User: What shape does this take?
Amino acid sequence: MPYMRAMPDKRVTREASTTRLILYAGKGGVGKTTIAASTAARAAARGHRTLVVSTDIAHSLGDVLQADLGNDPRQVGERLFAQEINVLEEARRSWGKVQTHMADFLRKEGVPDVQADELAIMPGMEEVAALVQIGRMLRSGQYDCVVVDAAPTGETIRLLSMPESFLWYAGRFQAWRGRLMRYVGPFLRGALPDLNIIDVMGALAHRIRDLRGALTDARYSSYRIVVTPNSMVLKEARRAETYLNLFGYPVDAVILNRILPPQPAGNLYIDAMTASQDRALMEITQSFATIPIFRAPLSADEPLGVAALEALGCEVFGDRDPTEVMHVGPSQQVEKQEHGYLLRIPIPNVEIDRLSLTKRGDELYVDVGNVRREVTLPNALATLEPGTARMRDGMLEIPFGIMATDVAANIGS
Ligand SMILES: Nc1ncnc2c1ncn2[C@@H]1O[C@H](COP(=O)(O)OP(=O)(O)OP(=O)(O)O)[C@@H](O)[C@H]1O
Ligand SMILES: [Mg+2]
Assistant: This one.
């Protein structure tokens, strides 16, 4: 393979913060890898230096591109690079040292061996490592566009909620360490691990905060949901949209994959399939009313290899550049009202009974099922109490005012 292992020209760099990020999410098997690779192939053909990267532990990007991929980017076509992140390896690389020192530290504090090892394992390390790696690629300045082929919805939500969870964990750890330092004298302090965990954690928290900023910047980062015309898939797609919005990740398109091309009527089986597809298409169009929908036909052969993928990309995006920001939706807003403020958070398609709110100081916790988003409230709202929240036009509206009486907000309709 002529392009293997070559790296892009490092002299030609571009301001890292302007690197485009496109992440494909969706239910298992809908075609995320195929569409991500098609988008990348098409972007490269249009002149963008493009990297397509898989964060799925069960990689299939190499199979789809028909190339042997590894943990570092490899060139698979003109201006086209691909990478399968080995998340476990990345986690070891980023965390190995921290984890060892953390375990040592806990042991010195009298925590028994096994428990110390156990406690030192931070939740979601693999996800954080994968994100850090994506962040590294975005900052490298070597690519105009990074396309992420993510794991099925549940894991992707875990991946994308990780910056918040990590920052929470780092914050708590820091507070706990601070308290401890007050009790131990200067002598014991010297016995703490050589590597200052607090510094490492602090630096990492800083990087994660920056990364979260980049990942939620609608000018450069977009999240696209892949669906097939099938109602189970649609349900999960709605859930994906809800969670992406909850964490402030801008969704700019829906890709409707595997559409059966028009068939001549007369065959009972094909007619039934077409009718079922039409119903699903209508439901999908209604569900994602404001988000542009792109269509990808079901091809007779699996689209494998760069040429076939680029051809599919052409069918999906037509004349449009696949790296364009296709849509910018509403973001979190605070409106001044007569007796206070109205905080509006976009959470379309949310199942109302799965949503609950708690406020603590300037932090508002929005829980959807077992996923939690921590919203830091602007100063103006931090001292006020939230009233009864309600959903309107895909936005969660929470009034804040001196007049509001309900401390823990309830969800109204
Ligand atoms: N438009 C299409 N026409 C024909 N075959 C397709 C199309 N899109 C995807 N496929 C095929 O469907 C299968 C699943 O696609 P793909 O691996 O891209 O899905 P995925 O969402 O990434 O799956 P997973 O969740 O397992 O990662 C593959 O065999 C792929 O070649
Ligand atoms: Mg896949």
